[in-house]
Amino acid sequence: MVTPSKNQSGQFAFGAPGALSNSFGTPVHNVSALEPDLQVIFKGLQKRDATTRVKAVEDLVQNSGKLLEDLPEASVDPFVGAFMGLYPTLAIDVDRKVRANVHAIVGMLVRAYKKRTVRQLADCAPYWQLGLHDSDRTVSKAAADALTMAFPTSEKQTEFKKLFSVATVGRCIELALDEDASSLSDSRFRY
What is the pLDDT of residues 159-185, one digit of tens each? Predict the structure, then answer.
């Protein structure tokens, strides 16, 4: 059973140390097809040190405009697959900057690559919707802004939520009933 944990200020918080952190041990998509600078960023996203993850995700955000325009066609699917594979883990990261930035990135990816992201959305949608209810306002606003960016009309947002509601409810039930702190987190990230 998952027990709530407290953040540094003593309040219960989503993403606080000891709280849910989705299987860090799961293998990430092969990033060898990506350019070397992207490979470095993806390696940084998987590091234990929160500062390294923050730096990597901020680098990705800063270069996102150029990246979305200049990404070679052969690198699009590996990039989308690798990022969407890491998204569930990063969306519930301890650091709020990581959580806020990955929501922004997933919104940009869904908007830019529409159908190429659909395959991974079933796994990512529950964490995106959890982000909408994050205890940190900047994170919940980033998730909401990303949803608006990816799905500009309220009808499309409602359709997104309906389409992935079964996946979201299923994942929440799985997290609540079947998982515990040791099965949700990688020992490298325990303090």
Answer: 999 999 998 899 888 878 887 776 666
93-115 exposure pattern, b = at least 16 Cβ within 10 A, e = fewer: bbbbbbbbbbbbbbbbbbbbbee
Domains and CATH numbers, the chain: 36-181 (1.25.10.10)
Q: What mean pLDDT value characterizes the chain?
A: 82
Instruction: Give alpha helix (H) positions in the chain.
Output: 36-45, 50-62, 64-70, 73-90, 96-131, 137-150, 154-163, 165-173, 181-184
Dist. CA 65–CA 171, nearest whole Å: 32
Query: Which tokens in the block code for residue 97?
Result: 């900057």
Query: What whole-number distance in Å separates Cα of residue 46 and Cα of residue 95?
Result: 13
Which amino acid is it at 117?
Answer: T
Residues with Cβ within 8 Å of residue 85, at least 6 apart in sequence: 26, 28, 29, 120
C-alpha pair distances (Å), 15 with each of 67, 68, 70, 154: 28, 29, 33, 28
Whole-prediction pTM value?
Answer: 0.78
The candidate with the shortest Cα–Cα distance to 26, out of 89, 103, 77, is: 89
